[in-house]
Known about the structure:
3 domains
Amino acid sequence: MRLAPGIYAVGATLPPDAVARHHCLAVVAHVWPSAVVSDRSALSGGPSEGWLFIRHPDPPRRSDLRMPGLTISVQDGPGPLPGDMPLPHGLYLSGVVRGLIENVTGRGRPPLDRPARAAGTTEVEDRIDALARDGGAGRIRNVLADLDLIKGNFDSTAVETVRARLAELLGTFAGRSPSSPRLRARLAGEPFDASRIAVLEGLVEGMGAIPPVPAPALGDAERWRWLPFFEAYFSNFIEGTEFGVEEARRIAMEGEVPAARPQDAHDVSATYSIVSDPRLAARRAQSGTGLLELLREQHGILMGARPDKHPGEFKQVRNYAGGYQFVEPELLPGTLKRGFDTLSPVTDPLHRAVAMMFLITECHPFDDGNGRVARIAANAELTATGQIRIVIPTVYRNNYLAGLSAVSNRAGRGEALVAVLRFAQRWVAAIDWTDFDAAHAEIQATNGYLDPGLAESTGQRLRLLGGLPAG
């Protein structure tokens, strides 16, 4: 198989472009011995967008080498330097510091027929932010020391750009603001999780294409009398604080505290104390800073009986669910603040509730109680605008978690989560909450109390009274 003039693959069975990618380093080593995979290719770890960029101190060939699906482009540059990493066939990959310098945006117009060799200063600043996040000040000092070892091999402007950004992280102001939002936020003391904000932006944009469906909470206060109790009951039950509904009623409404489970009882009564108070139930943050304060305050109430869960304090260690890692502690305040600002275009109450619930759930700001805090915040968006609150009955737990996971994994743009929560809102609207016994009977009739695993195995779903089950 002919890959390029004078270059053949013998016995190849894959398509030509796959053969070219598979053997690209062997080809580079044949044409440019001891070359360095550099520039944007160093950041990606190999070819990207059909191009591989390399540097060589005295290139035997200076023109591009075109193969099926892949073009190799060489530029004069230093050979292997301290910090560069060895590759197969005697080649090298630009090290961390060299990769930063090579990818600073250069002078001149960008090329029209190919990707720019440099990934750009913004990408470099994002990489510096990642270095600071993973290694702290010690890593930054080491990178600065490595920079001094190789700086004489590169354009001084690019070197000083990298040096200034690194030095800023150690407290030396360079006088010019970074172009990277991530690095600017870190220098301001509020680094954020850029990937989570990107997902939230996608959710906000996706909901913009979903028509609003108002769900006003009609009727007087008596119509919704028992809703706060059942909301508190289910919000705790799906998090593992399980009581029989009658026992939970005595705990929330009569102040009963089971001797064997005082902390669990407090979880239920504390949740009820928030959602049953019209002022607290409708309390919304007006700014990113206000959101942080409100979340800490509510968590302090909810987890007040659990000092081991650090009530009212943001997490200090990473937390996970089923192997999925939530926002890192260092990035938490900045992500919540920037996330709050990201929600500003959302005006529909349900859509805003969906976005707020996702933001808090994805951040998971506390050691425990995150789901309850997220649902309270989401429902505040509805109550403050006179809309029906959302309750997730036990049987609907898996649907609810699947909707959140779909957004996290970028499966769609929030359609599933909006559909799940909208159906839960419709279910709430259909229940008669004026009387405990009436509400209890209708929840039973709609399968609300069923264990979600048992319900799935038997084909039962949450139902609307007289209507279809949830999909």
